[in-house]
Amino acid sequence: MSQSLKLPLSALKLHVDMADIDISLKSSESASLLIGQARAQSALEFGVAMPRFGYNIFVMGEPGLGRLSLVFEQLKLAAQILSTPASLVYIDHFNFSREPKALLLPAGTGHTFSKDIEKLIDDVLATFPAVFDSPTYQQKKTAIERHFTQAYNTAIGMVDYKAQEMGIALFMENDVMTFAPMGSNKPLTDEEFSLLPQAEKDVFHADVVGLEDYLNEVLLELPQWRREMAERIKQVDSDTVSSAIEPLFAELRDKYQEQADVIMYLAEMKQHLVDVTIADILMPSKTIDADAFRRNKQLLIEQYLPNVLVDHKLDTGAPVIYEPHPTYQNLFGRIEYASEQGALVTSYRKICAGSLHKANGGYLVLDAEKLLNYPYVWDGLKRALQAGCIEIDAPYTEWGINTITLKPEVVTLNLKVVLVGSRDIYYLLEELDSEFNEMFKVLADFDPYIPVTHSNIQQLATRIQSYAQEHTGKQLTSNAVQRLIEHSCRLAESQQQFSAHINDTLEIIGEADLFSQRSHATVIEQTHIEQALQAREYRNGRISQEILKEMLDGTILIDTTGEAVGKINGLTVLEIGGSCYGSPARITTTVSPGSRGIVDIEREAELGQSIHSKGVMILSGYLGHFYAQQFPLAISASIAIEQSYSEIDGDSASLAELCCLISALTRTPIKQSFALTGSINQYGEVQAVGGINEKIEGFFRLCQARGLDGSHAVIIPVANKRNLMLKQEVIDAVKQELFAIYAVSYVNQALELLTGQIAGEVDQEGYYPEDSINFRAISRLKEISEMANEEDKAE
């Protein structure tokens, strides 16, 4: 029977047939970025083509599966046939400067429009204040001032004439009028005036009062004259500015005549220049030196130059944007601030675009995990997609931290979002967010494994050769390509599939190239691939080597020869960082009369996790089903994985634990040259487990170090035959009959291999043969049950 369970050499590893595989450079020119993801590709094609609301895409799968490569490949194909979206600029809203206006321009014209406005600003600075020095302007202004002066002088002349009739002189100094008495046709001094009789003084004072009243009467309309003069000068200034500025705007109006929003902005800008800017900073009274010119230009730029947020080149199709750092500001845009004299100030010129602006009209790709890590971003993205607009705001106002001083005009949003994330994130969002399925109706599910078919092997070989040519400038031999494909199958733990983490396989090429260079080879051969794999294993193998060393020196007790009752070699897998390696572990069992049941020491010590504890509990179900049909099951047993000081999970030790328990129960010795792994159910069927290659190789290394003698073997589940991708050294040992691998389907098969005795099958009457292990197990359990009944009666 044991020979029928032993696996042949052909079952230990998949040997890829390269006979019909083309690995030439010609075939590598058509290398595909993705292999064997037809389901995901179909979902992406559907999601990209579906224009309806809510058909955003969630790309599900683990990193390294080529998710982004396929996403960008599909999106760029779709983007090429779409029209290029409009350019987006923000301009000042002159009447409400805290609410900048959004201006949409034809694709590719955003920066052109900005340069046109900048040239207009230069022309304005070149025109003003020089235009006020023109003879025409000066004549008009002088005429207005002369008219006012004449009216003023006429009124003063009337007062002066009347004063002379009264013998009083009129003096003016700095628009201040004073009166003085006359004597001998000349004004009297203060001393002379003081010598006059009091009566004459009184007459003079009375006359002065009358003259002042008269002066006020004739100058009553002086403020009105001044206002009229100021208004007329202002009108002349306005007319002069309008006349001078009109040619500057005429060309722009002609250029943008089909864009109503631009024409409206030009009209508002012209009016603002005429009414405010030129009068404030570009009038003749202002001193214009080099520094002042630069300051004035900067002021005009800050007030009029459009802020170009997005300006896609014409005929480039729709944008495809990937945002690697999706903070709120990076996604929705932000408003920057400058410090001026201790105060924070801002303007429409400090509005910065977010990824939503850049991707608007196209596609936005985001990492789901990063997206969920930043506050407010997920809710903000849903809100933007539902509302169909982009609003630049500060998300922290709910905390009372209000730093925003602008409220830019919202922009219509029309894009498709592609979220890339793991399965855990997808199912978490689906469970916790009721709106998630409404917004992301398309799931592109990436398979972590690719079927081993001729077509897929050809594509992988082509991809390997293409990568090697691009990154090393060398070709791989057929054997080297074959070795890499087999390594990919090992990563997938399958003879029927290879790993979809293609990059994990391609990385070996760069490492193998180093060994190729050292040997001065012009191609990368299989030996170089082997050297790269061995070097990687050596770099990451310190801990496994230490454990092996402790087994060899007896620190960790593992027997590989002889027989023992209640002791068995189980197989475990340890994962530390990026390293994964197998190691044997001793499992021991003790049995005594009593009814405590099977005690899992790992669980009692809080080291055994739930799945491991489940595997131990199944043992009671097995014993009850096969051995305790005619009497109550009463047993006290303890099971432990010896010298284990960390948490243990998984049920892959349940087959070994059951065999060890039966050994202790029946006092049947177990061969210590065997190790086994496998999960069982209550009916004794052996089930598949993970890490099968590492487990076998872990026990093999220990036996090899102590010396292989042909008695060493590993027992695995039949269901794991498809997962075997063993190293060549193990295969060679099996070929030389120094090591063996057995595959079992039932517990009885494992018992017979471990003990060399008959496990026994029930006959038609439900009894096992008397010389079988199962018969001894029933007898022992019945004896313990009767002892328990006698104790109960005695009490």
Automatic annotation (TrEMBL):
UniProt keyword Hydrolase present: yes
List of catalytic residues: 652, 695
Q: Which InterPro entries match?
A: AAA_32, Lon-like_helical, Lon_proteolytic, Lon_Prtase, LonB_AAA-LID, P-loop_NTPase, Ribosomal_Su5_D2-typ_SF, Ribsml_uS5_D2-typ_fold_subgr
Q: What class of enzyme is it?
A: hydrolase
EC numbers for this chain? 3.4.21.53
Q: Which SUPFAM superfamilies match?
A: P-loop containing nucleoside triphosphate hydrolases, Ribosomal protein S5 domain 2-like
- Any one GO BP annotation for this protein: protein catabolic process
Question: Into which family does the record put it?
Answer: Belongs to the peptidase S16 family.
Q: Where is each Lon proteolytic domain found? A: 562-757
Biological source species: Methylocucumis oryzae
What PANTHER family would the database entry show? Answer: ATP DEPENDENT LON PROTEASE FAMILY MEMBER
Q: Supply one GO molecular-function term.
A: ATP-dependent peptidase activity
Which protein, by its recorded name, is this?
endopeptidase La
Question: Which UniProt keywords are listed?
Answer: Hydrolase, Protease, Serine protease
Which reaction is this enzyme known to catalyze? Hydrolysis of proteins in presence of ATP
A Pfam family hit: LonB_AAA-LID
